[in-house]
Design goal:
By secondary structure, the chain is α+β, with helices and mostly antiparallel strands. The chain has three domains: 100 residues, PAS domain (Beta-Lactamase, 2-Layer Sandwich); 92 residues, Helix Hairpins, CATH 1.10.287; 157 residues, Heat Shock Protein 90 (2-Layer Sandwich), CATH 3.30.565. It has nine helices and twelve strands. A five-stranded antiparallel beta sheet has the order 2-1-5-4-3. It has a five-stranded mixed beta sheet with strand order 7-9-10-12-11. The protein has a two-stranded antiparallel ribbon with strand order 6-8. A hairpin with a 2-residue loop joins strand 9 and strand 10.
Length: 352
């Protein structure tokens, strides 16, 4: 017993952190120099520990010792924050109290909290700005689309040249609308503010509707645009409908951006209780080297002001984010000058 006490006294004195030992009644048996310095006085042997740490009144010291329990508490001394651990030592019928100065940790935590508050405020401001600016852009675009559709409905009264102009106005307003949606969606995904709603959705309806939306664009682009469905028109998946529709929209839109001649095909197939959406084009293709960067935001194989193809570099990044959201999979098969093929796979919803 004496040898152990001497060893503990030596250990305590060598420790840079406060160390205090008490008996079962709470009387101090040992305190090191660090503990004395922290409390700006000599902790008297025999003094009761609850006079130093009133919180220990809440602990059942006898129980802590008997069961070798460990208790934690924080204590502030002269503006400094300390974390203390109370450990029962049944063999010697005592408790050992170890302390650690966590003032710097507390300061860092507070700084992080302030930084997080500022970041959240900045994120909210960004979301509000994008929401307002997108509204300001979308509102006139809706009017432009409405007027262009009205003019198209009266196109028989105009020459083919004007009919082509009306069609171009409609297609480009739709394209700009999609770009605004893309930027807003990507912002919501990156800030974690996108609100998903998972439910049973008819995948045939989603893909077929998107295909129809691009038909006029294909006519203007002089591209062969086809849709081949090998699934039942009632085929369903369990997913977030809006994000699934945006996956299809952006894959088709991407195909049009990089295909100047030839064809674009959209396919819908089933294989082993899985539904596959396939978008394939005869466009410029993707180099093997660039495939690793394909889904990175703002990433484009052709960059700079003189690049031959338009785009924000966000479409495929958003596709990948929405693929992950729906726990789907995407595959890419492409070569330079050989076109590109994107395959998106969802689990089919089996109805019992």
């Amino acid at each position: 017993q004496m040898q152990h006490t001497e060893m503990m006294a030596l250990f305590s004195e060598l420790s840079p952190d406060p160390v205090i030992r008490c008996d079962i009644s709470g009387r101090i048996l040992l305190s090191n120099e660090s503990a004395n310095d922290i409390f700006n006085k000599k902790i008297l042997l025999g003094e009761y520990i609850e006079n130093v740490f009133p919180i220990i009144k809440n602990f059942d010291i006898e129980k802590v010792i008997d069961y070798g329990l460990i208790k934690n508490f924080e204590h502030t001394v002269d503006g400094k924050h300390f974390q203390f651990v109370v450990a029962g030592v049944p063999k010697y019928n005592a408790i050992q109290i170890y302390g650690r100065d966590i003032s710097q940790l507390k300061t860092t935590q507070q700084e992080l909290k302030v930084a997080l508050t500022k970041a959240n405020a900045s994120t909210k401001l960004k979301e509000e700005f994008l929401s307002r600016i997108s509204h300001e852009i979308r509102s006139p675009l809706v009017s432009i689309q409405g007027y262009s559709e009205l003019l198209k409905s009266q196109s028989d009264e105009f020459s083919p040249e004007y009919q082509s102009i009306f069609q171009s106005i409609e297609n480009n307003s739709k394209r700009l609308y999609r770009t605004v949606e893309l930027i807003l969606n990507m912002s919501q995904v990156q800030t974690g503010s996108y609100e998903s709603s998972f439910k049973e959705i008819n995948i045939y309806n989603v893909v077929e509707k998107t295909y129809r939306e691009f038909k006029s664009f294909a006519e203007e682009s002089k591209l062969d645009f086809t849709f081949d469905s090998q699934v039942d028109t009632e085929t369903s998946i369990f997913a977030d409908e809006y994000s699934v529709s945006q996956i299809v929209v952006n894959l088709i839109d991407n195909a049009f951006k990089y295909t100047r001649k030839g064809s674009i095909s959209v396919g819908l197939y089933k294989e082993n209780q899985r539904v596959k959406i396939v978008v394939e084009d005869t466009g410029v293709g993707i180099s093997e080297k660039y495939l690793n960067n394909l889904f990175q935001p703002f990433s484009q194989e052709y960059s700079g002001y003189t690049r031959p193809y338009d785009g924000t570099g966000l479409g495929l990044a958003l596709v990948k984010s929405f693929i992950d959201l729906n726990e789907a999979k995407i595959e890419v098969d492409s070569e330079i000058n050989r076109g590109a093929k994107f395959i998106v796979t969802f689990d089919e919803l089996i109805k019992l």
